[in-house]
Amino acid sequence: MHFNEKLRKLRKTKELSQSMLSKLTKIPQTTISDWETNKTSPDLKQLKMLCDVLEVSIIQLLDDVT
């Protein structure tokens, strides 16, 4: 599974829109959209913010990512 697919799946599992995730992480919605469409990737600080909001570890977020 690619990172963009895993992020989208985790976000939807938590019933969060991109906009809601943006507000919770203070990461622009356009950036989250770019990640989910595989245009860019998050840096380590952004990964940490995502993990905190999605309640997963970085290992869980990146596990099985190709």
From TrEMBL:
Residues 7-61 form the HTH cro/C1-type domain. It comes from the Bacteria. PROSITE patterns: HTH_CROC1 (PS50943). SUPFAM superfamilies: lambda repressor-like DNA-binding domains (SSF47413). Keywords: DNA-binding. GO terms for molecular function: DNA binding. CDD domains: HTH_XRE (cd00093). PANTHER family: HTH-TYPE TRANSCRIPTIONAL REGULATOR XRE, TRACRIPTIONAL REGULATORY PROTEIN-RELATED-RELATED. This is HTH cro/C1-type domain-containing protein. It comes from Vallitalea longa.
